[in-house]
Structure formats: structure tokens, C-alpha cells
Amino acid sequence: MISRRNFLKTSALTLGGMSLPSLISCAGGNENKAAEAAAPAPKEFIGLQTYSLGAELAADVPGGLAKVKSFGYTDLELAGYNNGRIHAGYGDGDEGYAPADYKKLCDDLGLNILSAHLGTPSQYKTPEAEFTEAWKKTVEDHVTLGCTYIVDPSMPQCATIDEVKQACDRFNLAGKICKEAGIQFGYHNHNNEFTKLATPEQIKAKREEIIEMMKKRFPQMKPTDEMINGMMRRNAPGTMYEQLYMDNTDPELVCFQLDVYWCMIGDQDPCEWITEHSDRIKLLHIKDRWIIGDSGMMNWKNIFTRAKAVGIKHFFVELESDPKGRKQFEGVEKSAQFLASQDYVW
Predict the structure, then answer these.
(1) SS3 of 85, please?
(2) Which candidate, 317, 209, 297, places its Cα nearest to that of 21?
(3) 44 or 309, which is more confident?
(4) Do 196 and 238 meet the contact criterion of CB atoms below 8 Å apart?
(5) By C-alpha distance, which of 56, 40, 54 is closest to 2?
(6) pLDDT at 28
(7) Can you identify the CATH homologous superfamily of domain 4-198+238-340?
(8) Contact at 8 Å (CB) between 296 and 28?
(9) Which of 27, 132, 210, 239 is paired with 329 by a 20 to 30 Å CA distance?
(10) Any bridge partners for residue 286, and if so which?
(11) For residues 42 and 73, is the Cβ–Cβ distance under 8 A?
């Protein structure tokens, strides 16, 4: 499978140093292994991001979707929209379906299309009129699909606060067009959203603060640029991108889908984000090293319990490609088995 980031880059305009995980309350400690999970039991909701299957689904879309249904999944989040066609996973390897035909295929299998990932809104430098025309057509196609959500999973390339604000203006515009069509627009994170962006003034002030601190603690040592820069990296000034996106978008137009795995990889506690931003986070991405529940890295009980407490109802399993070369359908099936076996999953 191609990487998710490369997929998002190539699909974005078809409309017309990883840090170590923190020892946090939502990380690790899961004694339940997917390999030991019971056979699937009916659940009210188990969602799947179709990117998880990619070319394996493209080889036989009807048969693959039937397998997905048999595994216990109830809802889909699509990925791979391209020029008015719905593709399997990331738009390669199949001719695609017209939206109405894809919806009928899913309806006949009893699968609901709740959401879709589309990368275009983050391309905020596209002229507004050009974007608006293309986005309206895209939204119309996703109304046909029956989507409740459209989610952008592609981080805007912003080097300054002003550029972040421009990107957020585009998010708001995308959200406004979606809302007019009865769809909620949202944004999905990876780990880079949990790095900080600072103004020149904030950087200057932090640098001066570090120099003064080092002079007091080590009066006989002259601080070098290497030492100062090292301290700057460990004590970065500014605000996290994810927070900037929340601060600069309209809550009525833009919600957030928290990918709990990437949140943890970004040295953040997903439970804290779920609690502190319960008014903005409406969807979750459930991800692990590969099979959900197999690594022991994620405390799924805490995450699901906290999500339920704040009223989050929908989540989607997403699997990247397996480094050991196992089939994606295997990972998707075992992930569903694990979730179906857990009492805390609604």
C-alpha cells in the first residue's frame, strides 16, 4: 500500500522526528490481545475507514465489502474520491463507481456510509472561486452517498500563524458549503499537529528566557547556540497546530476527528483531548500498531469510556500497511473481533 501522506498529497486537488509516546493515562497497559479475542458479537456501531484495505478491496469491491459486513462492521468512512468516482481505499487499482452505484452496493449489503476523507480544503492557496466550484460538486456527490461527515485528513503546509489563519478560513468555507448541504465538515489529525508554531516575538522571548536561566544555573559557562537551540527544542514556545485549528475555525462549521494513536505518538494523552475539547471532537479514529488491541500500547478501555462519557458516538478503525506483510483483510477482521469482544465498546 502507498503511504497515507503520499495518497493525500496526490488526491488533494482531484476536485477539478517521531517522538516517543508519553507515559499517559490512555497509553499502554491493555492486557487483551486481539489474537485471544472472541468471535464477533453484534455491536451497535463499528466503523471502518476503507483506506485500511486499499488494493485488496479494489480487487473485488462487492466481495470485499461483503467480507467487511461479515466481520461485524456497520458503517464506512470512504477514502479515494477522484473526479466524481468512488475508488477503493486510495483511488488506484480500480475504475471506481459512480456515487449512486457505490451507495446502492453498500445499501444492499447493509453497510452505512457515514463519512468520507477528502484532502482538498487544506489546499488553501487554490483560488477561492475555483475551490468553491469544485467543492460544491464534491459535496453534491457525497450527499448522494448519504454522508453525514466529510473530513479533511491532510495537514495544511503552514509556516506562520497568518498561514494557519488562511487555511482555517478555507476550512470554514468548506464547512459552510457542507452545512448548506446538510453535511458536517471536520478535520483529522496525525502526529505533527501536536508540534508547536510560534510567532517571531514568542521565539525571541523564549530564547532570552533560556539564556537568562542558563546564566543563573551555570554562571561560569557561556551558553552556546547548540545548547540554547537544544533547550528551545525541549521547551518549544507557541501553540500546537491542532489548538490553532480549533481556535481559528467556527465551531458551527468545523468539527474534529481525533486519531487517538497519532495523538499518543505526538506525546499527547487522547483522553485529555477528548475531555477538554468535547465540544469540538465528534469522531474518533481507532488505530494501533496494526491490529487493534494487539500491541499493548493503547488503553482502549479508558479511551472508549471517556469518549462515551462526553457523547462521542462514532469511531472508525484504520490500519496502515503491515510491516510484516500480512493481508489487510486479516488485520481488519481481527480488529473487529477484538472490538466486538470488549464490553466497553458500544
Answers:
(1) strand
(2) 297
(3) 309
(4) yes
(5) 54
(6) 58
(7) Divalent-metal-dependent TIM barrel enzymes (3.20.20.150)
(8) yes
(9) 27
(10) 317
(11) no
